[in-house]
Amino acid sequence: MYELDVVAPDSLGRFVYRWYGPPDRPPVELALPGVPEALAEWHRLAARYTYPLSRDHELLPPGSARFWQGSADWYSFDDAAFRAGARDPEVIENDGLYTGLPLSRFLVYAAVYEATYAPLHGLVRMAPPAEAVRAVKVRLRELDDGLWQWPDPALRYFGDDDLLAHLGPDRIVIAGRHRDALGRFDGLDLAWDWDSRTL
Predict the structure, then answer these.
(1) pLDDT per residue over 138-153, tens digit each?
(2) Are 57 and 114 spatial neighbours (Cβ–Cβ below 8 Å)?
Protein backbone atom coordinates (compact mmCIF):
# COMPACT_ATOMS: atom_id res chain seq x y z
CA MET A 1 0.00 0.00 0.00
CA TYR A 2 2.87 2.36 -0.73
CA GLU A 3 0.53 4.64 -2.67
CA LEU A 4 -1.16 5.39 0.68
CA ASP A 5 1.98 6.18 2.68
CA VAL A 6 2.38 9.52 0.92
CA VAL A 7 -0.94 10.51 -0.60
CA ALA A 8 -0.23 12.01 -4.03
CA PRO A 9 -2.37 13.09 -7.00
CA ASP A 10 -2.28 9.57 -8.47
CA SER A 11 -2.94 7.71 -5.19
CA LEU A 12 -6.67 7.21 -5.83
CA GLY A 13 -6.19 5.47 -9.17
CA ARG A 14 -3.24 3.40 -7.96
CA PHE A 15 -5.09 2.28 -4.82
CA VAL A 16 -8.27 1.32 -6.71
CA TYR A 17 -6.22 -0.69 -9.22
CA ARG A 18 -4.22 -2.45 -6.49
CA TRP A 19 -7.24 -3.26 -4.31
CA TYR A 20 -9.85 -4.18 -6.94
CA GLY A 21 -7.59 -5.29 -9.79
CA PRO A 22 -7.79 -4.19 -13.43
CA PRO A 23 -11.04 -2.52 -14.49
CA ASP A 24 -13.61 -4.82 -16.07
CA ARG A 25 -15.25 -2.11 -18.19
CA PRO A 26 -13.77 0.09 -20.92
CA PRO A 27 -13.13 3.79 -20.33
CA VAL A 28 -16.18 6.00 -20.89
CA GLU A 29 -16.45 9.65 -21.75
CA LEU A 30 -18.29 11.39 -18.94
CA ALA A 31 -19.42 14.98 -19.34
CA LEU A 32 -18.92 16.42 -15.86
CA PRO A 33 -19.09 20.19 -16.18
CA GLY A 34 -18.91 22.09 -12.91
CA VAL A 35 -17.28 19.16 -11.10
CA PRO A 36 -13.78 19.47 -9.58
CA GLU A 37 -11.24 17.30 -11.39
CA ALA A 38 -10.63 15.05 -8.36
CA LEU A 39 -14.32 14.17 -8.17
CA ALA A 40 -14.52 13.69 -11.95
CA GLU A 41 -11.63 11.21 -11.61
CA TRP A 42 -13.60 9.26 -8.96
CA HIS A 43 -16.63 9.04 -11.27
CA ARG A 44 -14.45 7.94 -14.21
CA LEU A 45 -12.84 5.23 -12.06
CA ALA A 46 -16.18 4.05 -10.66
CA ALA A 47 -17.61 3.76 -14.18
CA ARG A 48 -14.87 1.27 -15.09
CA TYR A 49 -15.75 -1.25 -12.35
CA THR A 50 -18.85 -3.42 -12.15
CA TYR A 51 -18.22 -3.81 -8.41
CA PRO A 52 -19.23 -0.52 -6.77
CA LEU A 53 -16.36 1.46 -5.25
CA SER A 54 -18.78 2.98 -2.74
CA ARG A 55 -21.03 0.60 -0.81
CA ASP A 56 -21.18 1.85 2.77
CA HIS A 57 -21.85 5.43 1.73
CA GLU A 58 -23.57 6.41 -1.50
CA LEU A 59 -21.58 8.16 -4.19
CA LEU A 60 -24.05 10.79 -5.34
CA PRO A 61 -24.47 11.66 -9.01
CA PRO A 62 -22.72 14.85 -10.08
CA GLY A 63 -24.84 17.95 -10.12
CA SER A 64 -24.47 19.42 -6.66
CA ALA A 65 -21.63 20.04 -4.24
CA ARG A 66 -22.74 17.09 -2.07
CA PHE A 67 -20.95 13.97 -3.33
CA TRP A 68 -20.81 11.22 -0.65
CA GLN A 69 -23.58 10.37 1.80
CA GLY A 70 -24.02 7.85 4.59
CA SER A 71 -26.98 7.19 6.84
CA ALA A 72 -25.94 9.85 9.36
CA ASP A 73 -23.27 11.91 7.61
CA TRP A 74 -22.70 13.56 4.26
CA TYR A 75 -19.90 15.39 2.54
CA SER A 76 -19.76 18.22 0.05
CA PHE A 77 -17.04 20.33 -1.46
CA ASP A 78 -16.84 24.07 -0.88
CA ASP A 79 -18.79 25.07 -3.97
CA ALA A 80 -18.30 28.81 -3.44
CA ALA A 81 -14.52 28.37 -3.35
CA PHE A 82 -14.67 26.10 -6.42
CA ARG A 83 -16.72 28.67 -8.36
CA ALA A 84 -14.23 31.31 -7.27
CA GLY A 85 -11.42 29.32 -8.88
CA ALA A 86 -10.20 26.83 -6.26
CA ARG A 87 -9.15 23.75 -8.23
CA ASP A 88 -9.12 21.46 -5.17
CA PRO A 89 -11.79 22.83 -2.80
CA GLU A 90 -12.04 21.89 0.86
CA VAL A 91 -14.46 19.18 1.95
CA ILE A 92 -17.30 20.09 4.33
CA GLU A 93 -18.97 17.54 6.62
CA ASN A 94 -22.73 17.77 7.28
CA ASP A 95 -22.94 21.20 5.65
CA GLY A 96 -21.13 22.93 8.49
CA LEU A 97 -17.82 21.41 9.56
CA TYR A 98 -14.84 22.33 7.41
CA THR A 99 -12.61 19.25 7.50
CA GLY A 100 -9.34 20.92 6.51
CA LEU A 101 -8.97 18.30 3.75
CA PRO A 102 -8.85 19.16 0.06
CA LEU A 103 -11.19 17.10 -2.08
CA SER A 104 -8.38 15.15 -3.78
CA ARG A 105 -7.04 13.84 -0.45
CA PHE A 106 -10.49 13.24 1.00
CA LEU A 107 -11.46 11.02 -1.95
CA VAL A 108 -8.46 8.78 -1.30
CA TYR A 109 -9.66 8.56 2.32
CA ALA A 110 -13.20 7.74 1.10
CA ALA A 111 -11.93 4.96 -1.18
CA VAL A 112 -9.92 3.38 1.65
CA TYR A 113 -12.84 3.78 4.07
CA GLU A 114 -15.15 1.98 1.62
CA ALA A 115 -12.64 -0.83 1.03
CA THR A 116 -12.22 -1.26 4.79
CA TYR A 117 -15.81 -0.91 6.00
CA ALA A 118 -17.66 -2.64 3.16
CA PRO A 119 -15.39 -5.54 2.16
CA LEU A 120 -16.20 -8.93 0.72
CA HIS A 121 -13.65 -10.46 3.10
CA GLY A 122 -13.21 -9.07 6.58
CA LEU A 123 -13.15 -9.30 10.35
CA VAL A 124 -14.74 -6.97 12.91
CA ARG A 125 -14.52 -6.80 16.68
CA MET A 126 -16.05 -3.86 18.52
CA ALA A 127 -14.91 -2.97 22.05
CA PRO A 128 -11.91 -5.32 21.84
CA PRO A 129 -9.54 -5.93 24.74
CA ALA A 130 -6.42 -3.77 24.49
CA GLU A 131 -4.18 -6.82 24.09
CA ALA A 132 -6.17 -7.87 21.00
CA VAL A 133 -5.62 -4.47 19.37
CA ARG A 134 -1.88 -4.77 20.08
CA ALA A 135 -1.78 -8.30 18.66
CA VAL A 136 -3.41 -7.16 15.42
CA LYS A 137 -1.17 -4.07 15.14
CA VAL A 138 2.04 -6.09 15.21
CA ARG A 139 0.83 -8.07 12.19
CA LEU A 140 0.39 -4.92 10.07
CA ARG A 141 2.17 -1.69 9.21
CA GLU A 142 0.73 1.71 10.08
CA LEU A 143 0.14 3.92 7.05
CA ASP A 144 2.46 6.93 7.25
CA ASP A 145 0.52 9.83 5.75
CA GLY A 146 -1.15 12.10 8.31
CA LEU A 147 -4.44 11.62 6.45
CA TRP A 148 -4.84 8.25 8.16
CA GLN A 149 -5.19 9.88 11.58
CA TRP A 150 -8.23 11.88 10.45
CA PRO A 151 -10.76 12.52 11.95
CA ASP A 152 -9.69 10.97 15.27
CA PRO A 153 -5.98 10.39 16.01
CA ALA A 154 -6.93 7.54 18.37
CA LEU A 155 -8.03 5.57 15.29
CA ARG A 156 -5.36 4.67 12.74
CA TYR A 157 -5.24 2.92 9.39
CA PHE A 158 -2.85 0.02 8.84
CA GLY A 159 -2.24 -2.18 5.83
CA ASP A 160 -0.10 -4.10 3.42
CA ASP A 161 -0.63 -5.42 -0.11
CA ASP A 162 -3.59 -7.63 0.81
CA LEU A 163 -5.02 -6.08 3.99
CA LEU A 164 -6.41 -2.83 5.33
CA ALA A 165 -7.33 -2.23 8.96
CA HIS A 166 -8.81 0.59 11.01
CA LEU A 167 -7.75 0.13 14.62
CA GLY A 168 -8.40 1.97 17.84
CA PRO A 169 -9.39 1.37 21.42
CA ASP A 170 -13.01 0.81 20.39
CA ARG A 171 -12.61 -1.30 17.25
CA ILE A 172 -10.72 -3.71 15.09
CA VAL A 173 -11.95 -3.54 11.48
CA ILE A 174 -9.98 -5.58 8.95
CA ALA A 175 -10.55 -6.00 5.22
CA GLY A 176 -8.79 -8.48 2.98
CA ARG A 177 -8.40 -8.40 -0.79
CA HIS A 178 -9.04 -12.14 -0.68
CA ARG A 179 -10.25 -14.65 1.90
CA ASP A 180 -6.84 -16.18 2.62
CA ALA A 181 -5.37 -12.83 3.71
CA LEU A 182 -7.48 -13.01 6.88
CA GLY A 183 -5.63 -16.14 8.02
CA ARG A 184 -2.91 -13.88 9.42
CA PHE A 185 -5.22 -13.22 12.40
CA ASP A 186 -6.17 -16.81 13.14
CA GLY A 187 -4.91 -18.06 16.46
CA LEU A 188 -5.42 -14.75 18.29
CA ASP A 189 -8.05 -16.33 20.53
CA LEU A 190 -10.38 -13.47 19.68
CA ALA A 191 -14.12 -13.87 19.19
CA TRP A 192 -14.99 -11.80 16.11
CA ASP A 193 -18.30 -9.97 15.95
CA TRP A 194 -18.19 -10.54 12.18
CA ASP A 195 -16.02 -12.94 10.22
CA SER A 196 -16.87 -13.11 6.50
CA ARG A 197 -15.48 -16.65 6.34
CA THR A 198 -18.34 -17.95 8.48
CA LEU A 199 -21.11 -16.65 6.21
Answers:
(1) 999 999 999 999 999 9
(2) yes
